[in-house]
């Protein structure tokens, strides 16, 4: 079935009004309740919900995009990501260069170019092909009703927590330190350097794709009906994700991130067994210990993650596609557990996932983000080859 036929089929599904109402009510009540605590919390919750809507309606995932490029030569998802990164870096540059504007401080996502990033991103890339979703993909598919991805999310949290406990062995590994292209060369030069890298990556994937069929990144455009119910063109979804990442920077002072919240959720669960956070190097600091003691609704990244789930839930209802299934084949379930553990552990080593380390890292002009994607793609390649072992046909 071609894309246009698929789109028409999806549009015939009736709206699931109970799901939509529940989603809207939870988003509305949550934003007001969080806004009473802090206006930033309320706004970030809404931004998270809008991210969930964008991810779901555009089916904007990193996992399938990389797999399609490897197995089918369809690079449309990757091209959309390159354009998204280009737009985001143009939005970020004027604010990251001075460091503060109108009294608000802005800090980009800059991490060391190091062995731990290489190892962690490789494990993450491998894990996301088994788990079935990346950091953001896991959240929006959980919200969309995938019971299998609930298992992936639980394993993701467990792996993130295990990675945080094992961080000591990686602290002294080879590292060049954090390298910001803005700090090294200035904003304009940094934009030009990364634009050149994006163009080179685009050229390389175009050569790889050859004459093989591609999914249109804009398709037939976007009608008002599609705007509400989906599906959205990839390009539109990518542009909104870049804009919402910039909005996160404006409100929170830092770019969009996902997986540190997973580690926190795992730590909170383990603390119920009597574990002492002070016994861990990662959790011993006052800031992280306080995060364990406080509610998740006082943690910005957790707030946004919950918003993403609810935004995707609402979108699934509008699309008429919310249909949880309890029966999960054993091999698929095993892949979800293994993939989630690998992604969680890898994300802690690599200073984040495809969002925090790669998307927000490139938008912040951090060199570690490019190291991240090289090794994540290598792990993805192996993960794609392993998928048939777990019963996946693609």
How would you describe what is shown here?
With 394 residues, the protein is mainly alpha-helical. The chain has one domain (3-390). Helix content is 68%, strand content 3%. The chain contains 18 helices and 4 strands. The chain has helices at residues 3-11, 17-37, 39-57, 62-71, 76-96, 115-131, 135-143, 147-165, 181-185, 187-209, 224-229, 234-252, 259-271, 286-293, 300-319, 330-349, 354-363, 368-386, and strands at 100-101, 104-105, 112-114, 175-178. The strands form 2 sheets. The protein has a two-stranded antiparallel ribbon with strand order 1-2. Strand 1 and strand 2 (104-105) form a beta hairpin. Mean pLDDT is 93; it is low at 1-11.
The average pLDDT score comes to 93
- Count the domains: 1
What global shape is seen?
A: globular
Number of strands: 4
User: Could you state the order of secondary-structure elements as H and E?
Assistant: HHHHHEEEHHHEHHHHHHHHHH
Q: What brief labels describe this structure?
A:
single chain, 394 residues, mainly alpha, two-stranded antiparallel ribbon, 68% helix, globular
Topology:
Elements: H1 3-11, H2 17-37, H3 39-57, H4 62-71, H5 76-96, E1 100-101, E2 104-105, E3 112-114, H6 115-131, H7 135-143, H8 147-165, E4 175-178, H9 181-185, H10 187-209, H11 224-229, H12 234-252, H13 259-271, H14 286-293, H15 300-319, H16 330-349, H17 354-363, H18 368-386
Helix pairs in contact: 2-3, 2-15, 3-7, 3-12, 3-15, 4-5, 4-18, 5-10, 5-12, 5-17, 6-16, 6-18, 7-8, 7-15, 8-13, 8-16, 13-14, 17-18
């Amino acid at each position: 079935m071609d894309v246009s036929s698929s789109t028409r089929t999806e549009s015939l599904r009736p709206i699931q009004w109970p799901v939509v109402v529940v989603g809207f009510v939870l988003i509305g009540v949550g934003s007001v309740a969080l806004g009473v605590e802090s206006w930033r919390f309320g706004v970030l919750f809404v931004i998270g919900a809008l991210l969930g809507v964008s991810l779901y309606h555009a089916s904007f995932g990193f996992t399938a995009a990389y797999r399609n490029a490897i197995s089918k030569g369809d690079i449309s998802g990757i091209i959309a990501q390159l354009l998204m990164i280009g737009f985001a870096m143009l939005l970020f540059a004027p604010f990251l260069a001075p460091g503060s504007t109108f009294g608000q401080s802005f800090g980009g996502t800059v991490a060391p170019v190091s062995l731990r990033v290489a190892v962690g991103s490789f494990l993450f890339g491998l894990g996301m092909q088994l788990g079935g979703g990346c950091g953001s993909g896991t959240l929006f598919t959980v919200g969309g009703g995938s019971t299998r991805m609930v298992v992936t999310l639980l394993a993701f949290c467990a792996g993130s927590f295990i990675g945080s406990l094992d961080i000591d062995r990686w602290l002294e590994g080879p590292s060049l330190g954090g390298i910001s292209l803005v700090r090294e060369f200035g904003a304009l030069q940094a934009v030009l350097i990364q634009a050149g890298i994006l163009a080179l990556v685009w050229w390389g994937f175009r050569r790889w794709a050859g004459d093989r069929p591609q999914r249109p990144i804009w398709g037939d455009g976007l009608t008002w009906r599609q705007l509400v119910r989906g599906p959205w063109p990839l390009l539109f979804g990518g542009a909104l994700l870049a804009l919402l990442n910039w909005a996160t920077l404006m409100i929170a002072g830092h770019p969009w991130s996902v997986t540190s919240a997973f580690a926190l959720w795992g730590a909170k669960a383990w603390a119920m067994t009597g574990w002492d956070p002070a016994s861990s190097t990662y959790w011993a600091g006052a800031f992280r210990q306080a995060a364990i003691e406080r509610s998740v609704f006082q943690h910005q990244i957790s707030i946004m993650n919950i918003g993403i789930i609810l935004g995707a839930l609402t979108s699934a209802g509008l699309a008429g596609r919310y249909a949880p299934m309890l029966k999960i084949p054993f091999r698929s379930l095993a892949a979800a557990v293994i993939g989630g553990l690998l992604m969680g552990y890898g994300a802690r080593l690599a200073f984040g996932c495809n969002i925090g380390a790669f998307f927000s890292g490139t938008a912040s002009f951090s060199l570690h983000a490019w190291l991240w994607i090289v090794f994540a793609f290598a792990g993805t390649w192996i993960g794609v080859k392993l998928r048939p072992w777990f019963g996946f046909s693609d």
